[in-house]
Amino acid sequence: MRPKFTNTASLLRAAAATLVLAFFIALTAWTTELPSPVRHASEEILRHVRYLASDGLMGRGVDNPGIDLARDYIAAEFKRYGLVPGGENRTFLQTLEVVTGAKINEPSALSFGNGPPLVLNEEWIPFGLSRSAKIEGEVVFAGYGITARDYGYDDYANLDVKDKIVLVLRYEPPPKNEKSPFQKAPRYSNYATLLSKAANARNHGAIGMILVDLYPLREGEKELIPIRRTLGRSDTGIVAAQVKRQIAEERLHEIGISLRELKEKIDREERPASSPLPGLRVSAHVALEKITRKTDNIIGVLPGSDPELKGENIVIGAHYDHIGLGYYGTRDTTVEGQIHNGADDNASGTAVLMHLAESLSRRSQKLARSVVFVAFTAEELGTYGSNYYVSHPPFPIDSTKAMLNLDMVGRMRDNRVTAAGVDTAKEFRAIVTAAGQEVGIEIVPSPRSIGGSDHVPFYNKNIPVLHFYTGAHEDYHRPTDDWEKLNIEGMMKVSNVVLALLDKIAASKESPTFVHLSPSPPRS
Q1: Percentage helix, strand, coil, to 5, in the chain?
Q2: Any residues with CB less than 8 A from the CB of 309 and at least 6 apart, and which?
Q3: How confident is the model over 451-486, as pLDDT tens digits?
Q4: Is residue 465 classed as helix, strand or coil in its secondary structure?
Q5: 361 close to 81: Cβ distance less than 8 angstroms
Q6: Contact 232, 100 (CB under 8 A)
Q7: 240 and which of 172, 209, 249, 467 could share a cystine (Cβ 3.0–4.6 Å)?
């Protein structure tokens, strides 16, 4: 692992040096011929990831200048390829505002049971996705706060939580079999996210949610989650906070209930153990001031060649942001302040996106339908960029006939790539299988939901989606996710699969037929 910059002066020097480098890269790009696709395709992908995942971009966090350097680099590449600007005011940029922090203001306070008010930031902390409001009410234990009806698991079944405050556990039960929607630690399904738990509590009528973390802490890890790691696109319409485990265990012990025994029972049986908590009440007042910043999606368009079909489009997307210095999203809170370069997540997808744009723009015979290339911002904060795109589309949203997403495609192993969303169009399984055979790799359909990334907002607009992903690894959301570990040849194969799919989808007179799958919980 390369040394990381950990102080402001070093970061600023790195950013300045990278800005100069970016200028000369862009200048060279504008004044030279496009490279041969045969000789230089892998070199181009490598060039992209080496720049995007360099220390000078400071992890491409939306809260630091590195994201702007990445934006300018991608926009310059889109211009070099001859794409038509698809953003605002005839530029490649679509500007949006995101929440990057929150300040806890007075009179924020919380009282739990008969004890004295809890100490803010020591015994309790509000979540950044919380509503600002004052509440008071009975407390009900709602297990992990999960509703997965298709699997037959529902912590809220036969539980009255209307106008009450739910006490829920962090994460999710360990999976008992392959059919379980839950995942084995350290990975978790979308059901385990704070957003999913808060939204589920709200949808069941609760006015507040108190979360308790009973999992063992790693060395140096703090129990209370910093507010910058619990932000959302907007508040969830419910007061949400975390209370330290010792406080929660003491309050439940006073009424003869063991919180740990309840957790162990759920984990052992993978069955809910929800119940009222007689006599236990919470009063809370949360007052948050959100901190915002402007950032940009980057949109380039390759117009179609067919007079009848060019008004329709296929979106190819990848998010170009990462988690910066790890203050939000890191898997190891002991390394906060170190640069998280995010080579696989998601410089890899962004590099493949740019390679696809270059390859298709160089073809003499264009695709029948238009192709819209979008580098999304702020995915790591909660798919801000893609949600904004579908809410403010540069073209009528019903003109988008499919969306193909690239997120973490840089660690191919065993010559295979996972594709989520293969059942969101009735035609997809056949053409995905054919594309894999054509390229000579195995495409593994995701056995569960469509997953969580920038394709989900498109799916929610009834647009068929495919999401490509080469698998989990120990460097995910850690400072060790560096470009040297990427499989460039594997990234080329992913690019070739997408090209093969585009040849089939964009050329067909009939657009893919959308299929609605079982509901999936929201992603935070």
Answers
A1: 35, 20, 45
A2: 368, 369, 506, 509
A3: 789 999 999 999 999 999 999 999 999 999 999 999
A4: strand
A5: yes
A6: no
A7: 209
Distances, alpha carbon 4 to alpha carbons 8, 46, 59, 71, 327, in Å: 12, 21, 10, 22, 15
166 to each of 254, 284, 384, 394, how far by Cα in Å? 18, 13, 28, 41
In three state form, how does the secondary structure of 270-298 look? CCCCCEEEEEEEEEEEECEEEEEEEEEEE
DSSP state of 413: B
Report the amino acid identity of residue 305.
Answer: S
The answer to whether 85 touches 91, Cβ cutoff 8 Å, is yes
Give CA angle at 319 (500, 146), nearest 5°.
105
> What Å distances lie between residue 433 and 323, 421, 430, 442, 444, CA to CA?
34, 13, 5, 8, 9
Distance CA 511, CA 3 (A): 49
Query: Length of the chain in residues, anyone?
Result: 524
> 316, 352 in Cβ contact below 8 A?
no
Say whether pLDDT at 29 is over 80: no
Domains detected in the chain: 8-98+294-505 (3.40.630.10), 106-286 (3.50.30.30)
Residue keyed to tokens 């195995």: 442
Written as six digits, the tokens of 50 are 């080496």
Residue pointed to by tokens 């049971």? 113
Q: Are 467 and 501 in contact (CB under 8 A)?
A: no
Q: Strand, coil or helix: what is 243?
A: strand
Determine contact, residues 409/491, Cβ cutoff 8 Å.
Answer: yes
What mean pLDDT do residues 60-66 have? 96
pLDDT tens digits for range 482-497: 999 999 999 999 999 9
CA 412, CA 417: separation in Å to the nearest integer? 7
CA of residue 355 relative to chain centroid, distance: 22
Which pair of tokens denotes residue 507? 């050329």
What's the CA angle centered on 393, arms 389 and 397, to 5 degrees? 110
Work out the angle between the directed axes of helices 488-505 and 37-52 (0-180°, nearest 10). Answer: 110
3-state secondary structure of 121: coil
Structure token digits, residue 518: 């079982």
Q: In one letter, which amino acid is 83?
A: L
Q: What gap in Å lies between CA 406 and CA 466, rounded to an integer?
A: 9
Summarize pLDDT for 1-22 with one digit per residue, the tens: 333 444 444 444 444 444 444 4
